[in-house]
Structures are given as structure tokens and as C-alpha cells.
Amino acid sequence: MKGKLFYIGLIISFVTTGIAHYMHLNSTLQFVIACIAIIFVAGFLGKATESVAHYAGERVGGFLNATFGNAAELIIAFFLVRDGLFDVVKASLTGAIIGNLLLVLGLSIFAGGLKFKEQSFNVKLASHNSSLMILGVVALFIPAIFAGGLTTKETSTMSMIVAILLIVAYLLWLLFSMVTHKSVLSDEAIEHGEAAWSKGTSILFLILATVMVAFTSEWLVGTLEEVTHRFGLSELFVGAFLIAIIGNAAEHSAAVMMAMKNKMGAAVEIAIGSSLQIALFVAPVLVLVSFFVSGTPMNIVFTTYELAAIGVAVFITKSITQDGSTNWYEGLLLLVVYIILGVVFFLV
Amino acid sequence: MKGKLFYIGLIISFVTTGIAHYMHLNSTLQFVIACIAIIFVAGFLGKATESVAHYAGERVGGFLNATFGNAAELIIAFFLVRDGLFDVVKASLTGAIIGNLLLVLGLSIFAGGLKFKEQSFNVKLASHNSSLMILGVVALFIPAIFAGGLTTKETSTMSMIVAILLIVAYLLWLLFSMVTHKSVLSDEAIEHGEAAWSKGTSILFLILATVMVAFTSEWLVGTLEEVTHRFGLSELFVGAFLIAIIGNAAEHSAAVMMAMKNKMGAAVEIAIGSSLQIALFVAPVLVLVSFFVSGTPMNIVFTTYELAAIGVAVFITKSITQDGSTNWYEGLLLLVVYIILGVVFFLV
Amino acid sequence: MKGKLFYIGLIISFVTTGIAHYMHLNSTLQFVIACIAIIFVAGFLGKATESVAHYAGERVGGFLNATFGNAAELIIAFFLVRDGLFDVVKASLTGAIIGNLLLVLGLSIFAGGLKFKEQSFNVKLASHNSSLMILGVVALFIPAIFAGGLTTKETSTMSMIVAILLIVAYLLWLLFSMVTHKSVLSDEAIEHGEAAWSKGTSILFLILATVMVAFTSEWLVGTLEEVTHRFGLSELFVGAFLIAIIGNAAEHSAAVMMAMKNKMGAAVEIAIGSSLQIALFVAPVLVLVSFFVSGTPMNIVFTTYELAAIGVAVFITKSITQDGSTNWYEGLLLLVVYIILGVVFFLV
């Protein structure tokens, strides 16, 4: 029943967005409808990925889940890169990272903590994740610190090299966590439901979902400039808060639901894993993509504001998760920091 | 006997300060006498608070102890705010935070460590405190980082919003630590002596002590500008070191005494708890107060030097306390960092 | 056999370097030969130190090992200081710190991790080391943050005071780790081989080795300016990467070998201990030395780039070692960060 309603919503929102786009309706209206559609198509992509993962076996399935987990963000960002909106791209990457660490994780810990006095999870996992998060932070901070002393060309070179190193580190992390040290890190596995469809249908739906995400993303990105202009919002705020929240809606609900079932390990894995993927995989891939797609390549130099937000989010998340147990107040702390960042980004 | 001497000192120092003030004696003399008086009246306020807390029962008593713990700092800062000496206020808040984390805690750990090879305490407490400390640091750093991109009016708005969020977070922390998760955090409780007086007398003395602190603070603040000028000291140094040390003298001795009785948990709670209260409660309350009392509201933007000092203090304290055990060398490290900061603040 | 080859290499490389120097051969050639000679004479100094330490008994021996461990770096830096090449000195100190933390430790953890799934060591040791590392970082960051508000004279004063405080803290650390808390920190001891020679010969060789290091260092430093110029390398890069790697070659191989024998505690002790010594002892000693030797004293103010590199290295090392266990991926992370830093330092 719930499933049926989802598909009806998916089709209606997708079709409406398409019509609104091709009929050149009011751009605010287009923007709102596209936002709703993104939530549905990203949810559909998530379902299709999981179903394919089910047939692919645990190892390849884990890989698929990991790489398709942020597919929506990657596709939205792709269109932003194509249009040369590099500042919005970086803002939305920043937003996705802090959204996952502060909002998704904060809500999960808070909601779970209201139901259970203390929730715990595999400390090893938290410790490994936090080392990786630090690599991510380092990799984003170093270019910004050194960019002042470099020419534009040198900055591009540095960005490309750092991007390639990060992608290598990320691929080796998959090797580490899925092959050589699988057993050490396993926690309550993220709940894998039954496969929704037959194998063939699953693959077909994965392709279909990817295409739908691509279209909706393009339509959404098309309205962005006009909407931010009309409401006097900065691209920073729209990228870092609006787009990031929309693109992550599916993960939000999944993580919170895990936490309320007392599977805090899975919730932490979704939230931290997703932000790691953005810093260590999505961001560097976009740098390489921009090099081929756009005239001028996007560099990996984030603004001070973005770095401050990311640094703060990583630092407090690391502090809260490193003991392997959580309570409602820790969730609240994460949310308070998210709100503070939201306020200052809105004002800037 | 020891008690009697204390009250004699209290009355003499308070009366002398009053006389010196109204007879317009030499301002250096006024300053020195007022400093001595502050130590006595702050000690008296501490005793009265504890006695009232004794009658109020554990829960309300804990709340009273927590909120009156930094009453002297709050009152001194109130008069500085009234006189528009915002820079000295922020310097004294900075000084109170680093004084508690580095000097009070450092002395406690060092003195305790000379007597006991290794002293340990509840790791959960340390871990929770450190998450809160990070919230405090984040809440002080973010406005400073973003203030560059804001107008004065926007900075005020941001300061007010951040202040309100911090006060809410602090009140919920009291709820967390005194109601929902009381049992998890309890350690060797801070030693509560016998109530010194009857219930009525205790309340009367609490009011009396508060009034005495208020008068002495006002007299002290009145001499400040002339004294700093005469000795060529910066307001930063006076606020961050002189006033902070004087205002915290009572807590200093209490924490060191706990440590030497091998109650390191209580010493840590006093030192860290007090600096948390300043960052998360006293500072934001002063922002709101300044909005009503003073013409121009005080913003929550600290200088780079102050933030560096706070960041350094929090970072090293977190590192030293997070394993739940201490030794003399760790105390020494905190003291060395305090001296280094004292030297550079003196030179700047 | 292996030993014999070492001594042949030692004598040949040393003599050749001397000849090249006095015959004013091509400076690039001089530089290359001197680099090779440094590796040999530093290795000889290490052997001689260990042999003397063997006769001196555990306590004095430990002290000797600790103070002579970075003798080569100290001597090279001494000649750089004498020639007033302060920027290269600071770059080489930075390079020695990050080289030990990222390259030596990274290689050790990586190599050990390929052979053993998980390697563990005394967590207490890691925790103490990390508190000390933070002192080191604090002591290097504070002068840089505050230097902006100081005159040259005040900066010198501050540098001298900070240097003296650090040396005191370091000496007390030796007291702590070798006297009062020896038992708490002991892990698998660093492997002490048989004494290679009789007591008298050992002392003689220690003196001889020190003299040889001194000569070779002077010859090396003499070629530096011309070589960096000819190849268009920055002094920062040469100091931070070339000189640091050469000066530490002996420690590199020792640490990696320990790790491959599953003595990870010893490897961590070598790498972290060595970088601690540089930050807390070698750097402040050089400040004091420069005050007496050179006309203008070297200040302790590092550049933003150097501080960023040190901060990043300490932060990620702390995160990786604090759980007392390591695996190949953690080693790889350290190496990736080292490479990223190498790339940006090369480009700047």
C-alpha cells in the first residue's frame, strides 16, 4: 500500500516537473516541483540499487550500494559543473557533508536517544571512519591553505593530483573494508530488505532511475539561478542547505529509521559513510570531470566559510562518535551546530 | 578557628575597599584592596550557595551550585558591560576559560600527581564534557570566522541568535546531566560539607553575599582603566589573567584540595564544568544583557588571540582528560601552556 | 659481512665527500656524494650511541639514545643556523617532524600491516605521546599567531622564553618517562643489540662519529644554496623533504624493521619520539644557539605552510595511533597525506 503511493508520487512528480520545464512555467513553481520530484526519484534510485545489490551478492552489492549511494548528488553536481556553476557545486558538496554529519546523524542520534537511554555501536568502525574523515578534511584544507602561493595553472595541477590521490585512497578503502578487513568492521549490517523485483527488472529499473534522476537534476539546476536571485538568497546558502537537504532526503529517513530500531551502527555508517564518499570520491571525481567537460577546470579550493563548516562538523562528529555510544543530548548538540551554521550561512 | 579568620578577613577587606572607594584613595591601592576583597566575597558566595543547596535537596541544589558557581565572574562582567568595556569583558571570559582549563586543572592534576602516581575518574564524564567544550569552541569560533562577511547589524543578529541557541543548549545540558542521565555521569560527588547555617540564615547570607560581590565588583571595575594605564598593561592581559585569576580563586583552592584527596573526578568537574558554564551560559547571557543595558549591544566576536588561546586550551585539555586518568606530567603540560599564553598575552 | 660492507661504505663515502669538497668539484656532484655520506655517518653515530648506551646502564643509556637520536639533524641545523639560513632550518625541522610522523610511521604501519592483519601496542604510550605532540604543536603555533602583533625585539623575547619553557618541559618528560613512570610506559623495548665494541672503543667511536657527522654536514650545507638555485627548487622543499629524508634514513629503516617483526610499539616510539624531540628539544635548542652564534637570533615563528603541514601531520597521526592498533590502510593514509604535502610544497 505504502509502496503503491510511492510509485504514484514518483510518476506524478516526475511528469509534472517535465511538463513545467517544457512549458516554461514560473521558475519558482518549477523549482518547488523539481525539489519534490528529486526526493522521489532519488528514493527510487535507492530502491533499485538495493535490489540489484541483492542479486549481485554481498561483495559487489556492497560496492554498488557504496558507489550509487550518492548518485543523486553526483548527477546534480554534474549539471552544475557543466553549467560552470563551480561555487554552487562546492557549496552543495559542503552542504552534503555537513548535512550528513550534523543533520542526518544528529536527527538519528536524537530520535534514537529519545527512545533508548544509551545506544552503542562498533568502536572500531567509528575509529576507522574518523581517520578517513580526517584525510578528507586534510585533503580539502591543504589546497586552500597553499592556493594563496600558487598561480591558477599550479592550482589546477595541484587539484588534479590531489583528486587522483583521493580517488586511489577511496578505492583502497573499499578494498580494505570489503575484502581484507571485512570482519573487523562488520556491525549490525544495514538492513537489506527483500529484492523488490526480478533480476532483469531490477537492472532495468536501476537504469531507468538513473535516467530519471538525471533529467530531474537538469531541470532543477536550470531554475536555480533565477530562484536564488528572486528570493535574495546566496548561492552558498542554496547549495549548502536547500540542495543538500533535498538530495539526501532518502538517506535521512533511512538513517533515522535505523536509529529508532536501535541499530545505531547502521545509522552512523549511512551518515558518516555518505559524507566520506562525498569528500573522498564525489568531490575529486567532479574535479576530473570538470577538466574534461568544462572549458576551465574546477579547482579543489574551498572557501574559508566552507572549510570552517566542514572542519567544525568533522571535529564535533568525531568527538561524539569516538566512544561508540550515543544519547539524545549528543544528537541535540549536532543539531545545534547545524542550526548555527545555517544561520551564519543565511546571513553571509 | 580557620572559619573565624575567614569572616574577619571578609569584613575587613570589604569595608576597607568601600572606604577606599568613597574616599577616592590612590587607584592602585583601591585596585589591590578590591582584588583581595573579591577573593573573600567570592568565597563567601560559594559557601552560602552550598549551604542553600544543602537544604534545597540534591536536584535543585545541583542546579544552584551550577548557576551560582560563576556568579562572581558574571557580576564583574555585568559592570564591565554596563561601562561598555566589551573588550575587557571578552578578555576576562577568555581568561576564565583558559584559567579553569589550564591553571586550575593543571595545578590540581600536578599537585594530585605528586601525591598519587596515577589518578583516575569516570571516562564517560570526561567524554561528555569534551563534546560540550567543542560546542563551546565552535560557538565562539564560527561568529569570528563569518563576521568578516557581515555588516555590524548582521553581526548583532548573529550574536543574539547564537547566544539564545547556546543558552537553550546549556539548559538542556542541565536537564540531561541532572535528570535523564544523572546516574551515568555521577562520579565521586563534589564534596558537600555540612550546611554552615540554618535554612533562613543561608538564604539571607546568599542574598548578602551576592550584594557584597556586586559592590566589590563595581569598585574593582571602577579602578581598572586607570591602573592598566598606569602600569602600561593591555586590557587583554588584565582581563585575561588578573581578573580571571582573582574571580576564580575560590574554585582554584577547592579543585586543588579535591585532587589532593584523590578525588580527581570532582576536580575535573569543577574546572571543566566552570569553563563550560562560562562559554555556554555566562558569555551568551552577557550578550543578551548588553543588548538591554548598553546602547550598542556586545557582539559574540572574539579576537584571533582570544580564540587561539581558547582553542589551544580546549584541545590540550581534551587530549589529557580523555583517557580518564592523569599524572603529574600532564598537569605540568597544562601549566606550561598557561605560562606560554601568559607570556605572549603580556607581550602583545 | 653486512657490517663490513657498511664500514667500507662509510669510509669511502666520507673520504670522497671530503675530497670533493676541498677540490671544489661540481656542486651538484658534491651534494649527491655528501647526501650518501650523511646516511652512512648518521648510521655510524646511531651504532656508536647504542653501544655506549649498552655500557652506561639502562637509565643513562635511555637518556643517551634519546638525546643522540636526532644528533645528525641537530648538527646539520647548527651549520645552517651559523650561515644564517634560518628559513631552511625551520623547513628542515618541519620536514623532520612530518617525515617521522607520516613517512617513517606510515611506511612502518603499511609494511607491518601487509604482513600482520592487525598490530597493537601500549595505548598509554600512544596517549602520552599525543599529549606531548599537542604541546609541541601549541608551542609552534602560538608564536606564529601572536607574532603579527609584536615587534622584532618582542618576537625574539617570546621565542627565547618559549624555547626555555619547551626545553624544561622536555627534560621533565625524560624524568617522567625514565624515572617516575617508567613501568607504566614500557612496551616491547626497542631492540638493543649486543655492544659492538669494548667500552673504550665505543666512547672513542661516539666522538669520532660525531666529528664525522659534523664535517659531512658542513660540506653538505655548503653546496645547498647553489644546488637549490640550479634546479629551481625552493629552500622550503629542499629543507622539508630532501634534507629531512636523508637525515632520518637510519631511523626509517630501524622503524620499518621493527614493524615487520610485529614490534609496532617500538616503531611508534621511534617515529613519534623522534618528532617530539625535534619539536620540543632540537627546535628550542637551535633558537638558543642562534642567539649566541649568529648576529640576529632565529625566532621560533614558522610559516603558515609549515604550521599547516605540522598540524595536519600531528592531527592524523594522533587519530590513527590513539586506539593502540594499526593496519595497512592506516599506514597508507599517512603516506597519502605525505605525498599530498610533498606535491604542494614542490609547487609553492
Automatic annotation (TrEMBL), chains A, B, C:
<feature type="transmembrane region" description="Helical">
    <location>
        <begin position="60"/>
        <end position="81"/>
    </location>
</feature>
<dbReference type="InterPro" id="IPR004837">
    <property type="entry name" value="NaCa_Exmemb"/>
</dbReference>
<feature type="domain" description="Sodium/calcium exchanger membrane region">
    <location>
        <begin position="202"/>
        <end position="346"/>
    </location>
</feature>
<keyword id="KW-0109">Calcium transport</keyword>
<feature type="transmembrane region" description="Helical">
    <location>
        <begin position="5"/>
        <end position="23"/>
    </location>
</feature>
<comment type="function">
    <text>Ca(+)/H(+) antiporter that extrudes calcium in exchange for external protons.</text>
</comment>
<protein>
    <recommendedName>
        <fullName>Ca(2+)/H(+) antiporter</fullName>
    </recommendedName>
</protein>
<keyword id="KW-0050">Antiport</keyword>
<keyword id="KW-0106">Calcium</keyword>
<feature type="transmembrane region" description="Helical">
    <location>
        <begin position="29"/>
        <end position="48"/>
    </location>
</feature>
<feature type="transmembrane region" description="Helical">
    <location>
        <begin position="93"/>
        <end position="111"/>
    </location>
</feature>
<feature type="domain" description="Sodium/calcium exchanger membrane region">
    <location>
        <begin position="27"/>
        <end position="178"/>
    </location>
</feature>
<feature type="transmembrane region" description="Helical">
    <location>
        <begin position="236"/>
        <end position="258"/>
    </location>
</feature>
<feature type="transmembrane region" description="Helical">
    <location>
        <begin position="157"/>
        <end position="176"/>
    </location>
</feature>
<feature type="transmembrane region" description="Helical">
    <location>
        <begin position="270"/>
        <end position="292"/>
    </location>
</feature>
<keyword id="KW-1133">Transmembrane helix</keyword>
<dbReference type="InterPro" id="IPR004713">
    <property type="entry name" value="CaH_exchang"/>
</dbReference>
<feature type="transmembrane region" description="Helical">
    <location>
        <begin position="328"/>
        <end position="347"/>
    </location>
</feature>
<keyword id="KW-0406">Ion transport</keyword>
<keyword id="KW-0812">Transmembrane</keyword>
<feature type="transmembrane region" description="Helical">
    <location>
        <begin position="196"/>
        <end position="216"/>
    </location>
</feature>
<dbReference type="Pfam" id="PF01699">
    <property type="entry name" value="Na_Ca_ex"/>
</dbReference>
<keyword id="KW-0813">Transport</keyword>
<feature type="transmembrane region" description="Helical">
    <location>
        <begin position="298"/>
        <end position="316"/>
    </location>
</feature>
<comment type="similarity">
    <text>Belongs to the Ca(2+):cation antiporter (CaCA) (TC 2.A.19) family.</text>
</comment>
<keyword id="KW-0472">Membrane</keyword>
<dbReference type="InterPro" id="IPR004798">
    <property type="entry name" value="CAX-like"/>
</dbReference>
<dbReference type="InterPro" id="IPR044880">
    <property type="entry name" value="NCX_ion-bd_dom_sf"/>
</dbReference>
<feature type="transmembrane region" description="Helical">
    <location>
        <begin position="132"/>
        <end position="151"/>
    </location>
</feature>
